[in-house]
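seq:
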Amino acid sequence: GMYMFAVLLLIAAALYTLSVSIWRGPWRDMWEAMPFIAKAIAGQATWLDYWDQYGYSHRPLVSRFFWMADARWFAGSNALLLAVSVAMQSMVYFAVRAVLRRDATFTADERCIVLVGVLFCLYNITQVFNFLHTFDVQWFLVTGFVGLSLERMLANSEQKKNSRLVIAWLCVLIASLNNFSALVIWPVEILLLLALRFPVLQVAGFSAA
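struct:
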């Protein structure tokens, strides 16, 4: 009880700090994206502009759509970017929750302890900077979709349905179109498929795609 109370109190403090610290307009790295955003709002951006590299490594194609949308339809308030970041953190939480609920080796109390710890990791005070630094929506999109991909793959470990494997693949693709760090999950998931004894054809299809 005290453990949960302490964690929830710390999360509440973090969310309060976030609520009183939100500002409008670009900050830090987002200033570097402003030429693209201005071009996109003017309707002059092409697919090559969305696909363009950032920092010689990232191709934040999906993130650029959200940057443009927040500036165009939310007056650069960062409301959309913050909402997406919070949604991605929530996606990680529910992915972990789904995995734990399928694992019969955990008791109800053990699941609760782990999930409260996950909540703390996702919404503690150290995350406030990342939430406010809305350019980092790309990182949240990576973790959210990678978490969902792994959950769908683990959920598919017994029945091995092609549809769930396709969802897992699409999630990693979306993650990869935000930040290069998502690329590391491709070999990890291929090894996971082998470890879970997926049919060779499915492993080959996932790898080739």
